[in-house]
Write a structure and sequence with these properties.
Length: 180
């Protein structure tokens, strides 16, 4: 059965490796017959959560910026795929900010039951992804019936477009999308 897949690319860099892998995941998910929407945070205006909790009553954030539209897409998706570069062994700040701004999903409900992750980093040592996995799994734990389904980790990617030179990584990203 076809799923509604939302891929959120959080890198702001042109030719970002995490976005390249996210596009390959998108291709795989489309080839599998899913309905896929790709959202990039480039050029999006997303302010910090104020912690006012008004979203719990209103069903949306009181800050009028791009986060509300993205959160609405998150609410309707069956599957969410996050793609982030790893900065200082953690998810990008813009990814964390969007997660915080999606707080309205607790009050309004959500459709998604599956979450996937794509990470890239200059460091290629084992365990680089662990703190990002902890953060994503912490977010997932706040929702009933949501399961972390898998990830693709690209290490040793220093420069823009480096992911294109790693066919095995491109294949992993494609296959993750194909198997959503």
């Amino acid at each position: 059965m076809a799923k509604k897949v939302l891929i959120i690319s959080t890198s702001l860099r042109n030719n970002a490796n995490s976005e390249i892998l996210a596009k390959e995941t998108e291709r795989g998910a489309r080839d599998a017959g899913n309905e896929v929407e790709f959202v990039s945070l480039k050029d999006k205006k997303i302010g910090f959560c104020k912690g006012c909790l008004a979203c719990q009553k209103l069903g949306r954030c009181v800050i009028d910026d791009d986060a509300n539209g993205i959160t609405a897409k998150m609410k309707e998706a069956d599957v969410i795929v996050w793609a982030t570069p790893i900065y200082y062994y953690e998810m990008s700040g813009q990814m964390k900010t969007l997660i915080d701004r999606a707080n309205s999903l607790f009050a309004t409900g959500k459709n998604f039951s599956e979450v996937y992750l794509i990470t890239t980093s200059a460091d290629f040592s084992k365990g680089v992804v662990q703190t990002v996995l902890n953060g994503v799994n912490g977010w997932i734990a706040c929702f009933d019936g949501v399961e972390f389904k898998g990830y693709v980790e690209g290490g040793g990617l220093d420069n823009p477009n480096d992911a294109l030179n790693h066919k095995d990584l491109m294949e992993k990203a494609y296959n993750m999308g194909k198997n959503i």
